[in-house]
Amino acid sequence: MPHGKLVACDVGDDFAITAGVSNWGGYAVACALYILNCCPIPRQIPPEGSWVPQTLRAGFLGLGTPNSH
Q1: Which residues are paired to 65 by β-bridges?
Q2: d(Cα 53, Cα 49) in Å, to the nearest integer?
Q3: What is d(CA 32, CA 24) in angstroms, rounded to the nearest whole number?
Q4: Which helix (H) or strand (E) covers residue 35, if one does?
Q5: In this protein, which residues make up the domain named D-glutamate cyclase-like C-terminal (predicted)?
Q6: What confidence score (pLDDT) does residue 40 get?
Q7: Domain regions of the chain by residue span
Q8: Alpha-carbon distance 55 to 62, whole Å?
Q9: Spatial separation of the C-alpha atoms in residues 28 and 9, rounded to whole Å
Q10: CA 38 to CA 68: how far, in whole Å?
């Protein structure tokens, strides 16, 4: 993590969840766990990053601008 030494933490972890307000980070984790364990929607979502090649093939360059070529 960039500037990780500046993040105050007493306990190590595998994933850093940063939030402006600690409760908001906790709410985000709780909601994500609920969705992963109770809702069928995540099973329909493509794996992370799998949309990138299709998006590039479609001509998307980024920053909200379609490829003009």
Answers
A1: 62
A2: 8
A3: 12
A4: helix 22-38
A5: 1-43
A6: 65
A7: 4-66
A8: 9
A9: 19
A10: 43
